[in-house]
Design brief:
Two copies of one chain form a homodimer.
Chain A: E1 9-21, E2 26-32, E3 42-43, E4 45-48, H1 55-67, E5 73-80, E6 91-100, E7 115-119, H2 130-145, E8 158-160, H3 161-172, H4 178-187, E9 191-198, E10 206-211, H5 213-219
Parallel strand pairs in A: 1-6
Antiparallel strand pairs in A: 1-2, 1-4, 2-3, 2-7, 5-6, 8-10, 9-10
The first copy, chain A, binds a DNA duplex through helix 4.
Chain lengths: 233, 233
DNA sequence: CCAAAAGTGTTAGGTTTACACCCATGT
DNA sequence: ACATGGGTGTAAACCTAACACTTTTGG
């Protein structure tokens, strides 16, 4: 293979903003950095792009290494490229955000990486421009969730409507009317009511629902308007 | 400065999908490639990222070199990274799309680059994965224009409502009801009616409008819903 | 005077919001 | 029996879409 002459080759990294929901609040999966410099400081999960990998592959590898999970929802967020963003060497980083069902992932939290789920409020300091990346990811998540049923990716297979509302309220840091919320959600036809109830969060119990995968895939790109007054956000 | 050891450094390019509107239809600014291989084949405008440049800077430089324009609307589209996407050498390319007022740019079309405005229907073959980039850019433009007043960036300072509708109809390849369209558009409060009329396109003449820059900036990120039945698209 | 494009109003249907009470059950 | 959270209905305001006729003027 020939090459382009006299051009600068640059390190390319992938960083993943991994959101999870524990039923109460939104969390981020962070690690304590393993290499010097800045060893021990909090950081997003990431890695350098390998010779024969696409960015999508790279992001999937990063996630799989850390969580063991595959087939997780992931989306390219943005390519960050300020020349001095990495203090060691010039690196551009393409950030991806991932949504994972925190329940499905209770395994070893890869001791090896000192990974932890950290509440989105009160994040610790992060290295480089990772804080900016997280801010962008939050913005994008809010934007997208206002229009598309993306937040289901954060929930387990079976979930209740109050749980779902809780999640939306967490993401938008507001309270929604439960009558309007459940009507809107159910009217999409995306949910299939189950016979069983979740009895953990109330005495009466709340019915479980499952996603109708077929309709979910079909309507994923439709504009659905789950939250009231979206222009407030 | 120290460096990361044993990591692969990769060529990083910036490619720009430049949309323009000539009053009739949407066009793309393409060039005939200057370097071998594939010399003379149609290509997006692009360049390699320089040592001390951010991607945003790189994209702005590319655009400025070709058109002489600055301060143009631009947005990062996506980082394309298939290992074999460039047949010469592995390169990742971060694509940006730009919207420019074709009138404001009637100058030399930089003979030097063999640039041309090409109609979006019936594009020629493009090198590498540039066709895919264009397809993504079209998708993004439609998506975004359904929600935000982004298409004004393609119009001259003064424009008429029928011209604006024309543009929307071009982007969505459909016809909209002019009564509903003008009501929606005017109800945003974004437009300021001028005294003068455009008499080129009709005998009666159509009033010119200008953007209220203040309100435009304020409402740019609001959800505005300019087109009917957005879920059709 | 005619063709061509601009401009404008109404109504019906649907969607969104605000709001309050009853239900089931574990303690 | 009571506290807790789950579940449901209605009416008013608003928004969207469908639809047709009049105006202006250059040729």
């Amino acid at each position: 293979m020939s090459r382009y002459l006299k051009q600068t080759r640059i390190l390319v990294a992938v960083d993943c903003i991994i959101f999870g929901f524990d039923g109460q609040e939104l969390k981020l999966l962070l690690i304590q950095r393993g290499l010097e410099p800045l060893k021990g400081r909090w950081s997003l999960v990431g890695g350098f792009l390998k010779e024969n990998e696409s960015l999508e592959d790279g992001a999937a590898h990063v996630l799989q290494q850390l969580t063991g999970l595959q087939g997780v929802y992931m989306e390219q967020l943005y390519a960050f490229s300020k020349p001095d963003r990495d203090s060691v060497e010039r690196t551009i980083s393409v950030a991806y955000f991932a949504l994972i069902d925190l329940d499905q992932y209770r395994q070893q939290l890869s001791e090896e990486y000192h990974a932890e789920w950290v509440s989105l409020r009160g994040l610790p300091d992060l290295i480089f421009d990772h804080k900016e990346m997280v801010a962008e990811a939050k913005k994008r998540l809010r934007y997208k969730a206002a229009l598309h049923p993306i937040l289901f990716e954060l929930l387990p297979d079976k979930f209740t409507v109050p749980q779902l509302q809780n999640l939306y309220e967490g993401v938008y840091d507001s309270l929604f009317d439960k009558r309007n919320f459940s009507r809107k959600v159910l009217s999409t036809g995306l949910l299939v009511k189950q016979k069983s109830k979740d009895k953990l969060n109330s005495k009466k119990g709340a019915f479980y629902y499952k996603l109708d995968k077929r309709k979910y895939n079909a309507k994923f790109h439709s504009f659905l308007n789950f939250i009231p007054n979206p222009n407030k956000f």
